[in-house]
Fold this sequence. Notes:
CATH superfamily of the largest domain: Periplasmic binding protein-like II
Strand content: 15-25%
CATH architecture of the largest domain: 3-Layer(aba) Sandwich
Radius of gyration: 26 Å
Amino acid sequence: MIETSLLEQLVAFHDYKTLSAAAEHLMTSQPALSRSMRKLEEDFGVPLFERSRNRLLLNENGILAAECARQVLHEQETMIARVRALDRSRRTIAIGSVAPGPLTDLSPLLSSEYEDRTVSTELRTKEELIPMLKQGIFQLIILREVPADDEIYASPCGSEHLYVSLPESHSLAFRKSVTFAEMDGTEFLQISNVGIWEDIKKAAMPHARIYLQKDNSAIKAIAAVSSMATFKTDISLRHYAPEPGRVIIPFSDESAVVHFWCCCLKKDERKFRGWFKTLETKYPDRNRHD
């Protein structure tokens, strides 16, 4: 049986081309790495390298061995992640989302539904969430559309509407609604990670200057002494009080409203049947898809 550390060193040598560069990457000595390469040849029982006085190169056998080693290491990482995910799923419900708002709304509801479990949440892109659901890293995911995937069950779980918070002295503060076009070029304060809203805002207001902050307390402090606009949503307004001296106005654009779907693997739908019944009761106005 070939040691995993040797396979990692072989892949590093393949990628970095020289013993010195690979040794530096691995934070080991060049002589130690050279001994590992000789050990690998013994384990394989065939020559893996072409040797000259000052150079060590992978031969055809070595290149194939490095490619296979990379696959083995990837499979090992996948195996560990899946086993850890299974263990975590017995104690934790991990839910990933494309936006923070639905997590704010649904996490307390999910915790009350499964009082014996810990609920963990994470923001990810759609491209990350679906594979991670299938690998068991997440048990539930929240997307902005029903995925075109026969393995996934989906149920509506609400929507989110984007608003702008403006000082009372702002020229648009009297308006009942505003458009993205009207606010393009404005300076905004924004929390760092807003998921899909980031792309929506960039597409709709390409000239807006958005200054990111790590937490809401920083935004509140700056907004209190600044004329800069901030973003709100109907979800955030349900959970957090707006800054004083400001007017909250909805964006009227169609893209300012996003609908969300809570998804699980179809094979796990029975496990979460109670949860989806709760969602159907809370959000009865849109049809369920599976």
